[in-house]
Amino acid sequence: MKLSSLLPLIGVLIFLYLLRGIDIGKVAVNLARVNPYLFLASLALIFITIVLKALRWKKIIASYGIDFPLGRCTKVWMIGFSISLITPGKIGDFAKSYYLKGKEGIGKSLTTVMVERIIDVVIIFILAILGLAAFTAIYVGGGFLLSAVSIIFLLFIAGIMAFSRKSLSYRLLSPFYRRFAPVKYKERVKLIYHDFYSGVDIIMSNKRSLAVPIIITLIAWFASVFQAFVLAAGMGLQIPYSFLLMVLPIVILLLVLPVSVSGIGTREAALVFFLSFIGIQAEAAISFSLMQLLIEYIGAAPGFYLWHRNPIKLRPI
Predict the structure, then answer these.
(1) Angle, vertex CA 122, rays to CA 121 and CA 124, nearest 5
(2) Angle (nearest 5°) at CA 111 between 92 and 162
(3) What pLDDT is stored for residue 313 in this prediction?
(4) pLDDT digits (tens, 9 = 90+) for 56-84
(5) Going by C-beta distance under 8 Å and a sequence separation of 6 or more, which residues neighbour residue 250?
(6) Please, which residues have CB within 8 angstroms of residue 296's CB and are 6 or more apart in sequence?
(7) Mapped to the 3 state alphabet, what secondary structure does 61-74 carry?
(8) What is the rounded distance in angstroms from the CA atom of residue 45 to the CA atom of residue 101?
């Protein structure tokens, strides 16, 4: 068994460790007393956010001159969202490229999803740095966390710049290609590689086309924070919207790490830590996290259904 396949167990172990130190009865009480109307309002905001992100993906696809209707984009985005919930590091997002490859090659289809993911991560990084700066100034003092996230962000940007240059990425990836790509798939891998970078060239030649997706990402992000705020209010938790704006980007960044499935363990640990600074007990923080997970799975239910109706037929590349 590969070590990487065991990484998601880290989140489970963290979750079990947290459960050891709390009153599970209180967690159950907190979950049971949620306001049903605010719960439904929070769920509605999940679907609004999904449509916004589908619109963003449509705008990115449109930069390739492809007409992919918003309704179809929304269905495919729902499928990607549902798969991302059950895969470490949300890598299931890239399943969306499978449903687009009929319009374009798999390389360019992957580019659209990669661009969407990069926009997401860059904005979350920036918001996390701003949030950490505010959080440390108000609640902690000292800048270790801020410095750590800033360094990771700079490394991330350096990685994007490196792999956006085809010649540089070729030098970096060639040793892996020669050593690990099976002989019978080498030509196919090479075609996907060149197709991917032809998609990158299209995006880079029309940077203005990214302005609208970036704006939509910001709107979707503020809607996501408001969704969490409404859910917290429905559970009787006094969490200011401004506080969620500070800490949720950091929590979301942790969910990108491939050490859990559906963020189980990592999200709970992060929320227990941050919410303790405003006097919210661990039981309430874990209840809030579990209710958020339930909301996400209900929101993903249509995606699971659509995925079942139109499954990804895996075959060798």
Answers:
(1) 60
(2) 105
(3) 61
(4) 999 888 887 788 889 999 999 999 889 88
(5) 128, 131, 132, 135, 149, 270, 274
(6) 46, 85, 262
(7) HHCCCCCCCHHHHH
(8) 30
Distance CA 71, CA 204 (A): 27
pLDDT band at 185 (very low <50, low <70, confident <90, very high): low
CA-based angle 84:19:85, to the nearest 5?
Answer: 5
pLDDT of 180 strictly over 80: no
302, two tokens: 């249509």
310/317 Cα distance (integer angstroms): 19
> Are residues 52 and 216 in contact, defined by beta-carbon separation less than 8 angstroms?
yes
CA distance 201 to 166: 9
Name, in order, each residue with C-beta under 8 angstroms of 302's C-beta and a sequence gap of 6 or more: 78, 82
CB neighbour list of residue 242: distance below 8 Å, 6 or more residues apart: none
Q: Rounded CA gap, 201 and 194, in Å?
A: 10
Q: How far apart are CA 68 and CA 57, in angstroms?
A: 10
Q: What is the pLDDT of residues 117-163, one digit of tens each?
A: 888 888 888 888 888 888 887 887 666 666 776 777 777 777 767 76
* Amino acid type, 253: L
Which sequence spans correspond to the domains of the chain? 3-309
Q: Which residues of 218-254 are buried (b: 16+ CB within 10 A; e: fewer)?
A: ebbbebbbbbbbbbbbbbebebeeebbbbbbbbbbbb
Exposed, middle or buried, 123 (CB in 10 Å: 0-12/13-18/19+)? Answer: middle
Residue 166: is it exposed, middle or buried by C-beta count within 10 angstroms (0-12/13-18/19+)? middle
- pLDDT > 90: what percent of the chain? 35
